[in-house]
C-alpha cells in the first residue's frame, strides 16, 4: 500500500488530526504536522500501541493458543489451448488465543465483604440511614448479579497475530515441476508474485479501515458503558461508615472494568472478523483480475507469434519460390521431425523449450511431414461481398413452416418473423403457413416465389428415390388384360391357355381378384392379367387397364353385350390401349356372332371386316377352338406396338394385388415394368416400404430376380399396400422412408379435409330430414382388392333415407379386436373368404354379434340390400276404390246434411277416407261417417246403387259434386 499523510489517515479513521498526532507521539512516532507521511510500518506500530493501551495484550494468566493450518491444491492453465497446466498449492495458517478474564473468586470475596459492611452499617445508623443502606444494598445486588455472567464474546477466537501477516500466510505457493524449464513457468511465478503483492496491499488497506472501525466501536461501547453505570447516591452516613463505602466503590469499579473489557473484546472480535472477510474478498478479486489479465496477455502473445510465424512463412515462400525443403535447422535435421523444425534446440513457437522423448523409448508420436504448398498458393480468401442484393427463386409448397421458408431464402427465421409482423401477421418459428401467405412473404423480402403443389413435391422426391436408369431398351413381353362380363368365360379362356384348372378353384366359379400369369407360347412369353367381371370390381378393372398393353374383351356369343362389357370398352379407351374382341362360347347352338358385332358397333367398336381397326376372334374355351388365332393376334398387335423397356438398373412396377398371409405376412403381387427387381432390394409401394426377402412366380417357385413384364409375389413388406400403388426400388432406405411419410401425410390431410365442418345447407337439410338409420359393417377380406370392391359396393347402396357405412376392416382373418370393434359400434361383422379365430368366435358368441361369412360377393350385396331395406319407412299407396255422384242434398237432425248419391264406379265403403271433388278439383278431404241404403245402415254400396252418404264435419255438399272413396296400403320398400 502507498504511503499516506496524517490528514488522510485521520479522514479514513474518522478521528481529529490533533488526536491522531497525540496517539502517534504516545506510540513513539514523531510527526510534525498533518502533511507528514506515514509508512506501513508506522501504521502497524500505532495499531500495536493502541491495542496495548486498551488492555488487549494484558492477560492475567497465559491464554491457550490454537493454530489452524489449511492447504489447497489447484491447477492453473498456462496457455489458451489448456494442454499445459501448473499445479498451485495455497497454504494458510491462523493462530487463535483465548483472552483472560477477571478471576471469579476475587469478585465473590469482594461481594461478600461489601454485604457484611452494609449489614454492620445498617445496625448502627438511624432509621433514615437504614433505608439508604437498603437502597445501596439493592444496587450492590444488581451489580453482583451482572458480574458472574460471561458474555459469549469472551470465548470468541481472536487473531493474536498482526493482520498484516495474514496475507503473507495465505499467499499462494507455486510448486513447479523440476523438469519444467520453459518460460511459461517463469511467467506463472511472476504472475503469482504480482498477485501476492497486490493482495497484500489490498489487505493492508482493508485492515486499516477495519482498525478504524474497531477503535470507533470500542469508544462507543466504553461511552455507553460509562453512561449506563451511574454513581449510586450515597446516603448521609456518619464518619465510622466511610471505610465500608470505599470498599464498595472499589468492588463496583472492578465489576465495571470487567464489563467494559468484555464489551470491548466482543466489539473488537466482531470488527476483526469483518475485516478478515473483507481482506479475503479483496484478495480473491485481485487474484481473479490478475488471472484474467494473464490469460489476455498470453492470448495476445499467441496471436502475435502466430501472425509472425505466418508472415515468416510467406516471406520464405516468396524468397525461395517453393514449399519444399523448409523447416531444416542448423543441425541438419529432417523436415519430418515434428513441430520443432526451423528452431534451434527444440524451441516451440511460444519461445519455450520442447520436451522430447528419446528414440529408444516407446510411445513417441512422430510428426507427419507437411505437404508442400503449391506455387500458386494464395493466402487471400476468394469471397467478395456482393454489390447487389441476391434474388433467389424459392419453391413454395402448399404448406411450409416459417423455419423452412427462412432456410430456403437463406435468411434467419427472425427476419421472416419481423417481415410478417410488418405485414400485420404474428407468427412463430414453427408455425405452418399456407401457400398464399408464404408467397406474399417471399415477394415482400425481394425474392421470386414458385408455387408448388403436393404432387410436384411427391414427383420430385419419387424421381430422387428411383434415380436414373441407364441402359439400352430391349423388347419385352406384352401385358394382356382380359376383361368382360361375369360368366362370359374369361378365366376359362385363360385356363385353357395355361392348361390348368384355375376356374374351379374360385368360389362359385367367379373370379374374386386379379390373377397375374406369364404363359410361354410358340411366339414368345405373354403376361396375362385376369380381372373380375362383377360390377363391384370396377376399381380392379381400371387398375388392370392402366398396367396393360393390350385388352382382350371377352363377349359371350349367346349373351351379347352386357354392362361390364361396356365398362371394359370405356376402361380400354381411357387407358388408350388397343382392343381385341374374343367372341367366346362359339360352340353353342344359340351362338350369334353377328349379333355381337352389331351391338359392339353401337359402342364404336368396329371389326376389321366392317372397315374398322378392331380384331374379332371366334374362340371356345371349352373345345379350344380359335385359341391359336387369339395368340397370333396378340403377338401381331405386340409387334405393331414395338414394346420395349430398360432391362437394367433399379426396378419400377405396379402392385397388382396384395394380401396378408398368416405364415408369410404381407404379400404383394407386383408386375415389374422397367429394370430388374432383385432379392435384397429396398423398395416402396405407396405408403409401405420393405426389403425383398423372397420372390415367387405364379407357380410358387422361388426366383432371384424378375425382369420387365414379369409378375412376381414379393415378401418383406412392412404392411399390406394398396392394389394399384406404384412400386419403386430406392437407392437407400432413408429416401424411401421419407417418400412414404410424405404420402402418408398427404393421405392424412385428405382424410381430415373430408371431415370438414358441415356446410349450412347440409346442416339444415339434416335438420329437416331428421336422423336417418345407419347400418355399420366391418369387413375382413382375403386380398386388398376384394376389400376395396366390397367397401365401394356397400357404400353405393346408401340413400337419403338409410346409410350403409363401412367402419373398418382390412386384409386377414377376424381377430378379437375386430370382434370388440364390431360389438362396440353395433356393426355386422363380415368375413369374405376368411374365418375368425377361436378368441374372436368366443367373444362373438358372448356379445351376440352378427357374424357372417361369404365367398361370393353377390350374396353379400343382397344381404346388405335386404338389411338396409328393412330399415326404410314403408311406402303408403292410395288406391281409389269407388266414386259416387251427389244427386240431392237432405238435412237430418241427427247427422246434418246427407248427400243422396249414385255409385258410378267401384264400391263405396264405410269408415274409409274420401275426397269431395267439384269440377274435378279437390275441395275437401275427410272421412265417410254414415252410409245408408234407404233407412238401413250398410257397410258398402256397389256401382249402380243409390245411397245416402254423411260426411263428417262438412256441410258444403252440393248437387253435382263427386265423392271419391279410396284406401291406404303400406308397401315394404327395398333398395
Word description of this protein:
The protein is α+β, with helices and mostly antiparallel strands and 975 residues long. The chain folds into 7 domains: 4-52; 65-294, no CATH class; 394-452, no CATH class; 477-642, P-loop containing nucleotide triphosphate hydrolases (Rossmann fold), CATH 3.40.50; 646-756, Elongation Factor Tu (Ef-tu), domain 3 (Beta Barrel); 758-870, Translation initiation factor IF- 2, domain 3 (Rossmann fold), CATH 3.40.50; 875-971, Elongation Factor Tu (Ef-tu), domain 3 (Beta Barrel), CATH 2.40.30.10. It is built from 23 helices and 39 strands. Strand 35 (921-933) and strand 36 form a beta hairpin. Helix 4 packs antiparallel against helix 5 (127-146), helix 4 (104-124) runs antiparallel to helix 8 (242-320) and helix 14 (538-546) packs parallel to helix 15 (563-575). The protein is elongated and about 160 Å long.
Amino acid at each position: 500500500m502507498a504511503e499516506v499523510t496524517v490528514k488522510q489517515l485521520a479522514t479514513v479513521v474518522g478521528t481529529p488530526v490533533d488526536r491522531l498526532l497525540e496517539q502517534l507521539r504516545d506510540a513513539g512516532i514523531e510527526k510534525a504536522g498533518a502533511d507528514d507521511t506515514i509508512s506501513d510500518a508506522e501504521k502497524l506500530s500505532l495499531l500495536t500501541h493502541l491495542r496495548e493501551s486498551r488492555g488487549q495484550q494484558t492477560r492475567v494468566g497465559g491464554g491457550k493458543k490454537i493454530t489452524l493450518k489449511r492447504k489447497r491444491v489447484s491447477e492453473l492453465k498456462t496457455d489458451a489451448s489448456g494442454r499445459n497446466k501448473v499445479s498451485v498449492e495455497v497454504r494458510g495458517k491462523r493462530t487463535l488465543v483465548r483472552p483472560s478474564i477477571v478471576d471469579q473468586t476475587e469478585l465473590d470475596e469482594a461481594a461478600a465483604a461489601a454485604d457484611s459492611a452494609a449489614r454492620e452499617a445498617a445496625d448502627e445508623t438511624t432509621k433514615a440511614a437504614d433505608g439508604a443502606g437498603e437502597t445501596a444494598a439493592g444496587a450492590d445486588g444488581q451489580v453482583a448479579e451482572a458480574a458472574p455472567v460471561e458474555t459469549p464474546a469472551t470465548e470468541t477466537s481472536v487473531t493474536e497475530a498482526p493482520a498484516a501477516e495474514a496475507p503473507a500466510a495465505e499467499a499462494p505457493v507455486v510448486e513447479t515441476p523440476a523438469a519444467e524449464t520453459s518460460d511459461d513457468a517463469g511467467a506463472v511465478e511472476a504472475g503469482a508474485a504480482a498477485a501476492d503483492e497486490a493482495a497484500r496491499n489490498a489487505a493492508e488497506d482493508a485492515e486499516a479501515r477495519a482498525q478504524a472501525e474497531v477503535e470507533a466501536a470500542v469508544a462507543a461501547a466504553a461511552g455507553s458503558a460509562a453512561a449506563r453505570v451511574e454513581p449510586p447516591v450515597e446516603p448521609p452516613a456518619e464518619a465510622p461508615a466511610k471505610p465500608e463505602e470505599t470498599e464498595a466503590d472499589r468492588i463496583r469499579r472492578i465489576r465495571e472494568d470487567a464489563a467494559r473489557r468484555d464489551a470491548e473484546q466482543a466489539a473488537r472480535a466482531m470488527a476483526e472478523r469483518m475485516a478478515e472477510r473483507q481482506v479475503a474478498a479483496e484478495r480473491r478479486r485481485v487474484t481473479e483480475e490478475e488471472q484474467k489479465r494473464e490469460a489476455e496477455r498470453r492470448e495476445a502473445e499467441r496471436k502475435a507469434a502466430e501472425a509472425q510465424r505466418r508472415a515468416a512463412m510467406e516471406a520464405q515462400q516468396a524468397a525461395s519460390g517453393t514449399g519444399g525443403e523448409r523447416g531444416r535447422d542448423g543441425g541438419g535435421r529432417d523436415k519430418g521431425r515434428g513441430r520443432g523444425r526451423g528452431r534451434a534446440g527444440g524451441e516451440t513457437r511460444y519461445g519455450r523449450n520442447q520436451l522430447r522423448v528419446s528414440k529408444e523409448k516407446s510411445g513417441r508420436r512422430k510428426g507427419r511431414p507437411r505437404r508442400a504448398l503449391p506455387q500458386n498458393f494464395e493466402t487471400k480468401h476468394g469471397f467478395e461481398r456482393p454489390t447487389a442484393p441476391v434474388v433467389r427463386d424459392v419453391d413454395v409448397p402448399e404448406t411450409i413452416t416459417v423455419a423452412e421458408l427462412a432456410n430456403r431464402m437463406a435468411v434467419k427465421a427472425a427476419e421472416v418473423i419481423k417481415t410478417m409482423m410488418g405485414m400485420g401477421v404474428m407468427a412463430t418459428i414453427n408455425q405452418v403457413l399456407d401457400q398464399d401467405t408464404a408467397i406474399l412473404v417471399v415477394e415482400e423480402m425481394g425474392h421470386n416465389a414458385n408455387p408448388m403443389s403436393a404432387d410436384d413435391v411427391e414427383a420430385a422426391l419419387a424421381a430422387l428415390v428411383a434415380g436414373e436408369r441407364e441402359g439400352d431398351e430391349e423388347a419385352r413381353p406384352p401385358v394382356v388384360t382380359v376383361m368382360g362380363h361375369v360368366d362370359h368365360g374369361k378365366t376359362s379362356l385363360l385356363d385353357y391357355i395355361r392348361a390348368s384348372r384355375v376356374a374351379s378353384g374360385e368360389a362359385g366359379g367367379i373370379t374374386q381378384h386379379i390373377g397375374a400369369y406369364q404363359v410361354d407360347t410358340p411366339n414368345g412369353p405373354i403376361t396375362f392379367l385376369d380381372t373380375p367381371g362383377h360390377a363391384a370390381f370396377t376399381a380392379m378393372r381400371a387398375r388392370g387397364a392402366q398396367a396393360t398393353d393390350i385388352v382382350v374383351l371377352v363377349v359371350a356369343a349367346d349373351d351379347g353385350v352386357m354392362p361390364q362389357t361396356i365398362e371394359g370398352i370405356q376402361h380400354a379407351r381411357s387407358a388408350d390401349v388397343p382392343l381385341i374382341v374374343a367372341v367366346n362360347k362359339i360352340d353353342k347352338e344359340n351362338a350369334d356372332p353377328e349379333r355381337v358385332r352389331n351391338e359392339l358397333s353401337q359402342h364404336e367398336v368396329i371389326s376389321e371386316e366392317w372397315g374398322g381397326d378392331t380384331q374379332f376372334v371366334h374362340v371356345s374355351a371349352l373345345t379350344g377352338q380359335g385359341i391359336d388365332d387369339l395368340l397370333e393376334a396378340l403377338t401381331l398387335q405386340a409387334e405393331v406396338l414395338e414394346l420395349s423397356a430398360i432391362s437394367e438398373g433399379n426396378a419400377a412396377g405396379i402392385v397388382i394385388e396384395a394380401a396378408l398371409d398368416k405364415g408369410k405376412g404381407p404379400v404383394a403381387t407386383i408386375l415389374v415394368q422397367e429394370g430388374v427387381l432383385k432379392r435384397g432390394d429396398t423398395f416402396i409401394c405407396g405408403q409401405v416400404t420393405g426389403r425383398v426377402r423372397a420372390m415367387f412366380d405364379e407357380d410358387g417357385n422361388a426366383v432371384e430376380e424378375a425382369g420387365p413384364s414379369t409378375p412376381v409375389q414379393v415378401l418383406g413388406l412392412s404392411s399390406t399396400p394398396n392394389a394399384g400403388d406404384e412400386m419403386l426400388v430406392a437407392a437407400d432406405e432413408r429416401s424411401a422412408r421419407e417418400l412414404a411419410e410424405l404420402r402418408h401425410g398427404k393421405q392424412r390431410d385428405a382424410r381430415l379435409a373430408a371431415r370438414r365442418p358441415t356446410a349450412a345447407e347440409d346442416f339444415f337439410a339434416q335438420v329437416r330430414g331428421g336422423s336417418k338409420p345407419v347400418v355399420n359393417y366391418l369387413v375382413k377380406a382375403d386380398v386388398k382388392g376384394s376389400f376395396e370392391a366390397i367397401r365401394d359396393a356397400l357404400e353405393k347402396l346408401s340413400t337419403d333415407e338409410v346409410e350403409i357405412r363401412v367402419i373398418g376392416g382390412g386384409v386377414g382373418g377376424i381377430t378379437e379386436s375386430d370382434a370388440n370393434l364390431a360389438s362396440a359400434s353395433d356393426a355386422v361383422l363380415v368375413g369374405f373368404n376368411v374365418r375368425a379365430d377361436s378368441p374372436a368366435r368366443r367373444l362373438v358368441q358372448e356379445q351376440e354379434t352378427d357374424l357372417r361369412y361369404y365367398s361370393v360377393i353377390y350374396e353379400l350385396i343382397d344381404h346388405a340390400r335386404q338389411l338396409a331395406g328393412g330399415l326404410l319407412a314403408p311406402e303408403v299407396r292410395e288406391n281409389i276404390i269407388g266414386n259416387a255422384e251427389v244427386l240431392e242434398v237432405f238435412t237430418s237432425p241427427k247427422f246434418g246434411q246427407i248427400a243422396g248419391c249414385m255409385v258410378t264406379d267401384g264400391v263405396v265403403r264405410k269408415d274409409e277416407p274420401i275426397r269431395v271433388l267439384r269440377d274435378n278439383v279437390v275441395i275437401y278431404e275427410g272421412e265417410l261417417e254414415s252410409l245408408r241404403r234407404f233407412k238401413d245402415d250398410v257397410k258398402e254400396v256397389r256401382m249402380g246403387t243409390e245411397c245416402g252418404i254423411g260426411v263428417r264435419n262438412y256441410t258444403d255438399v252440393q248437387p253435382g259434386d263427386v265423392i271419391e272413396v279410396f284406401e291406404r296400403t303400406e308397401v315394404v320398400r327395398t333398395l
